[in-house]
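Consider a concrete sample entry:
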Amino acid sequence: MRIERWHADRVRDRAGDLADLLTDAVDSGASVGFLAPLGHADAAGWWRERAEAVRAGRSAVWAAVDHTERVTGTVGLDFPAKPNSGHRAELVKLMVHRGARGQGLGRRLLTAAERAAAAAGRTLLHLDTETGSPAERLYRSAGWTVVGTIPDYAASPAGALRPTTLYYKRLGG
């Protein structure tokens, strides 16, 4: 699998493939901001909106693709627009297709985003994830620090309110 940073046109042009990944994540119970069932057209529309955020410099997207060019994972960074926030970014939508899990791809995507953020002068990253999710193990093992937990923060894909855990990581020293 190779990991590539995708520019806005590539995100827009591959929105259908990215939608396949997003619907797989939601169908497998990942709390990534959507309720099940998530239609393919809605998921592709979300990715096309994301392409515009990439074009505007508010976001960055990395995709993992296999030897057949199938999208098997993704991760993003969102950059705040406030003048006092140029040192930080939010890690968003780290997803790995069910068929590609357990092979270290999530860690590789996470590392790619962290390295790119550091290279761009970002010194602080933050994220939120569903409390008790498999993602927590990845973040903790990668050196992320727990800030705290917010009860009933977001609905799971099935609609049940679930707590979320907030994390941060300092970069570059």
